[in-house]
Amino acid sequence: MLFITQIGQRTSARSRGENIFPNLLKKLCVCRAFMMKIDLYAVCYNEEAMLPFFLKHYEKIVSNLYIYDNMSTDSSRDILKSHPKVKYNTFDTDGKCCEVTLTKIRNEEYKKFSYNCDYVIIVDIDEILYHPKILDLLLMYKKKGIECVHSIGYKMVWKHELPMISIDKQIYDVFKKGVFDQNYDKINIFDPKKIDIMVMAPTIVKAV
Asked: How far apart are the first and last CA of the chain?
């Protein structure tokens, strides 16, 4: 499982099992969301286990979640369609992983619906962008004219068998330790009016 943490700054600790959530805040400053419009884009395939935590995290941050479902066969569709902020879309690659299609979704779809947003977030369903005051941080970045935000990638680790996590909790209340992996560093957040192309693997940005 991949978490993205410490947006906009690089931490020095790199040892296995480091605690990357030392001061987890239970509440985000939701009022900041009214000062900015942020939309999120993600693709989905059979993510019923992760979706409740994904939606619970991002619903506090974004105005809309544009989710593109590759014909999931589990309960992902029902979970997504029941959420008030989700804009549900489908695509079909006939059960194959098609990077060309995924790249096209990431590059083009936000231009149809979110061009006037302050920021757009593009992530996978198993990626949680974490900062203890993420909305305050993005508001500060917006005021400074920062066009894209580089986040630091960690693979989360667990010593024993994976625990069952109640959806009443957040997944990062349980998984608090991770291993830094530079391969997962990404630019996940950008100003759609200033960035013309986002290719997430490999990460490429082209300024307007």
From this structure: 33
What sign results for the dihedral spanned by CA atoms 139, 143, 146, 148? positive
Q: What is the pLDDT of residues 87-107, one digit of tens each?
A: 999 999 988 888 899 989 999
Query: Cis bond leading into 84, ω under 30°?
Result: no
pLDDT top residue among 146 and 198: 146
* Summary mean pLDDT of the chain: 80
β-strand pairing of 64-69 with 86-90: parallel
Q: Output the six-digit token pair for 71.
A: 């014909």
**Cβ-based neighbours of 184, under 8 Å, separated by 6 or more:** 2, 4, 153, 154, 155
Span 105-120, pLDDT tens digits: 999 999 999 999 999 9
Residue 104 tokens, joined: 């096209």
What tokens were used for 205?
A: 């940005």
> Which pTM was predicted?
0.80
> Residue 165 and residue 149: Cα distance in Å, rounded?
30
Single-letter residue type at 27? K
Structure tokens at 88: 């549900």
Task: Give the rounded distance of the alpha carbon of 183 from its chain centre.
Answer: 16
